[in-house]
Write a structure and sequence with these properties.
The chain is an alpha/beta fold. 51% of the residues lie in helices and 16% in strands. A hairpin with a 2-residue loop joins β1 and β2.
Length: 133
């Protein structure tokens, strides 16, 4: 059975989709990624779809599901490398991927996730300071 590798980079998980996702592989990726978020306590998920040239409604729903499930587990999702044709198709299918952040490439996606972590850390530090009194 094919699997898409999930890499842990600091507080984040990264997936680079390099093949066309058929339904079973997409469902396995969804389950594996959500399990990895839970197991590692990752604060962010970066999904690189720069090699994906076609997205159907099922794949769009899987990406949205991954983002939603990850958010429930306290991890933000950023999708990077979306080709213009894929973006057009998602909008035409009525799948704007609400709640999913996007970035042009992996570097910008990581910066976005790191900013989110920094903001969360600062808020937690502020909350900790306020409880000392």
């Amino acid at each position: 059975m094919d699997k898409i590798p999930i890499l842990k980079i600091g507080h984040f998980l990264m997936v680079a989709i390099q093949v066309d996702l058929y339904d079973r592989l997409a469902l396995n990726l969804e389950a594996d990624l959500v399990q990895a978020v839970s197991k590692t306590g990752a604060k962010g998920v970066l999904i690189d779809i720069s090699s994906v040239s076609i997205v159907d409604s099922f794949m769009g729903r899987i990406l949205g599901n991954i983002a939603g499930m990850s958010k429930v587990l306290d991890a933000d999702t950023v999708i990077v490398g979306m080709q213009p044709a894929v973006a057009i198709t998602l909008v035409e299918l009525g799948l704007p991927l609400r709640g999913v952040q996007t970035a042009l490439n992996v570097e910008k996606g990581m910066e976005l996730l790191q900013k989110k972590i920094k903001i969360i850390d600062e808020e937690e530090a502020f909350d900790d300071d306020s409880t000392l009194q």
